[in-house]
Amino acid sequence: MKRIGIILNGVTGRMGTNQHLIRSILAIIKQGGVKISDELTLMPDPILTGRNETKLRELAERVGLTKYSTNLEAVLADPAYEIFFDASGTLQRAKFVEMAVAAGKAVYCEKPTAVETSEALRLATLCEDAGLKNGVVQDKLWLPGIRKFKLLRDQGFFGRILSVRGEFGYWVFTGEHEGQPAQRPSWNYRKEDGGGIIVDMLCHWRYVIDNLFGPVKSVSCSGATHLPHRLDEKGKPYACTADDACYATIETNNGIVCQFNSSWTVRVRRDDLFTMQVDGTQGSAIVGLRKCWAQSLGTTPRPTWNPDIDQPINFFDGWQEVPDATTYDNAFKIQWEEFLKHVALDTPFPWTLREGAKGVQLAELGLQSWEQRKWLDVPEMR
Ligand SMILES: NC(=O)c1ccc[n+]([C@@H]2O[C@H](COP(=O)([O-])OP(=O)(O)OC[C@H]3O[C@@H](n4cnc5c(N)ncnc54)[C@H](O)[C@@H]3O)[C@@H](O)[C@H]2O)c1
Q1: What's the angle, vertex CA 258, arms to CA 252 and CA 261, rounded to 5?
Q2: Most buried of the four, 6, 65, 263, 331, by CB within 10 Å?
């Protein structure tokens, strides 16, 4: 058994508590660690760090942990911890990554690593120059729906892929109506606090497109702040200074046209909060978070346009669900296990801060495209 000390910083928040602490680290401990061989198992040993002692204590007690601290400097100085993880707010990230690098820790963090490309690259370089292992969360790559899509793609199901339509979003309540509290943190809607759906979601769409369809070549993006005010966590009204909807078209260098709508101001009438339709010459798929439905050329119905009669074809019937063919673990947990192996055994881990910076680049160019109202090339990043 090899113990791996992990500093979990800023995990009293939404992502930190649920996905990283409970669904990943605690789940790994509960399953008996990451088994490498009969002789070797990697066992996480977490300590929670943050600003608010009460919140940390309550969280630690809730999940049955004993170690927490508000003194990050002291914890970083402790050689018992070799990994530093950060899920604090985006604008806090740089300071924490710098501290972790100075302490010689392996660095793993939530996306985006910054809101500007130059800053994201600076942090990547900082880790690289110090010779430290590093990674950024790219969780969507391990969603069951995406894994099922990849299986179809790798088996040649689609023929030549032509286009992709991603639809992400749901209604995020403003908090202004009795009985309908907001279900996302208020900083998401304030630009000055690192908010905005373009910064948030184009990071994801970058690695999804790069990995599934081909390297991103250019972007055209329009955004909107559809709702100008909301109520914060204390019930106080605030002005929304960041975009709450994003309408982006992204081209790959192999000619695939990808449209991704992302919105916190839409109501859902589709299979999931995120669905992605992929159309190819030989087949198509609808990819959800967990499920994936496919239709081949041979089973494609033959509609004719006639608005004078009710639609005779039930289009939903023409799709076949891709069955579960293996067990699908939590996406964040899978990436954590990969990072633990990378740190302990030097196995490959391509989802680095440098890769993460590409997401920030697409977001930054998306914002510029919106502002300038034009297509922008996405320069290759090294
Ligand atoms: N991978 C994904 O799908 C995904 C989804 C949502 C958010 N995120 C990212 O995760 C990060 C956190 O988002 P969230 O939705 O959990 O937000 P949140 O507001 O719920 O959590 C942020 C946490 O950071 C803490 N924090 C803020 N400033 C701090 C400081 N100076 N020192 C220590 N802790 C501090 C807060 O107390 C809170 O616990 C963001 O960077 C966001 O972009 C990723």
Answers
A1: 140
A2: 6
Number of domains in the chain: 2
Regarding whether 272 and 160 lie in a shared domain, the answer is yes
- Both 195 and 309 in one domain: the answer is yes
Of 7, 9, 11, 15, best ligand 1 pocket probe by most atoms within 8 Å of the beta carbon: 15
Average pLDDT over residues 73-87: 98
Ligand 1 in reach of 12 Cβ (< 6 A): yes
For residue 378, is it within any domain? Answer: no
Q: Are residues 105 and 149 in the same domain?
A: no
Q: Which of 251, 270, 272, 271 is nearest to 260 (CA)?
A: 251
Which residue has the least CA distance to atom 33 on ligand 1? 50
Tens digit of pLDDT for each residue in 194-216? 999 999 999 999 999 999 999 99
Question: How far is 141 from 146, CA to CA, in rounded Å?
Answer: 6
Pair (280, 338) in one structural domain? no
CA of 13 to the centre of ligand 1 (A): 5
**pTM, full prediction:** 0.97
145 lines ligand 1 (CB under 6 A): no
Asked whether residue 21 falls in the same domain as residue 111, the answer is yes
Q: What is the sign, positive or negative, of the torsion defined by CA atoms of 303, 155, 262, 273?
A: positive
What is the domain extent for residue 323? 141-329+361-372
Q: How far is the CA of 345 from the centre of ligand 1 (A)?
A: 29
What is the C-alpha separation between 188 and 198, in angstroms, rounded? 11
Answer whether residue 382 shows pLDDT above 80. no
Q: Are residues 316 and 169 in the same domain?
A: yes
Residues 234 and 342 in one domain: no
- Helices 117-129 and 93-102 pack at an angle, to 10 degrees, of 10
CATH number at residue 157: 3.30.360.10
Condensed to tens digits (0 to 9), the pLDDT of residues 332-356 reads 999 999 999 999 999 999 999 999 9
